[in-house]
Amino acid sequence: MSDEKGAHDGSAPVPGVEIFDDLAPVPVAPVPVPTVTPRAEDPSTPEPAHPVVRAFAFLLDGAATFVLTVVAVFASLNASYGFAFVLILLVPAVSAVVATVLTALFGFTPAKALLGLRVVDAETGGRPGWRSILRSLLIVAPLLLDLALAWTVGATFSSDLGLAVFVLLPPVVWAAMLAVLATRRRDRYRGVQDLAARSVVVSVR
């Protein structure tokens, strides 16, 4: 009776169980835990350009176009009045085309390159490509609207109110676009033009 009790309470080895003592433990591979790096903390992801810097780049490009236009007009003073008027329209148009081509191929305009800004595809980070045409059209849309108004109701611009509308329309629209852009911080400050072209402006410095 005592032997049977000792066999069951662990005081004596149970025959046949000792073969399990030499078995090696089965290795268990650790389960990898994926690490998600937030976009803002990923050093490989450029930071979105601040709206103030973007506005400054826009003003620099606009100022350069204005200076070129003035120089072209003064250089053509000896020509006819009509030729000078054509230059007032032609120089900004050429400037817009050049800016569009540069943005499509390299992702920057002269002012953006100077300030270390790039326009890239919002998903891949590559060049925006020819979607930059739509982007540029939206940027120059206030000027196109101005020209359309001047062409259709040009007589009204002879008044002070009409002249004020003609002069103030583009900067007011651009300021509104900048205000909308500045409120979209969670969407990397993407404005209407960026959403249409599926692009984002980043700082590479």
**Computed Rg:** 34 Å
Number of strands: 3
User: Can you tell me the overall shape?
Assistant: elongated
End-to-end Cα distance = 87 Å
Which secondary-structure class do the elements indicate? mainly alpha
**Averaged pLDDT, please?**
81
Count of the domains: 1
SSE series: HEHHHEHHHHE
> Spatial order of the strands in the main sheet?
1-3-2
How much of the sequence is in beta strands? 5-15%
Report the major sheet.
3 strands, antiparallel
Q: Number of DSSP helices?
A: 8
Low-confidence stretches: 36-41
> How much helicity do the residues have?
55-70%
Account of the 3D structure:
With 205 residues, this protein is mainly alpha-helical. The N and C termini lie far apart (87 Å). 15% of the residues are buried. It is built from 8 helices and 3 strands, in the order αβαααβααααβ. The chain is elongated. It has a 3-stranded antiparallel sheet. Helix 2 runs antiparallel to helix 3, helix 3 crosses helix 5 and helix 6 runs antiparallel to helix 7. The chain has one domain. The chain is 55% helix and 6% strand.
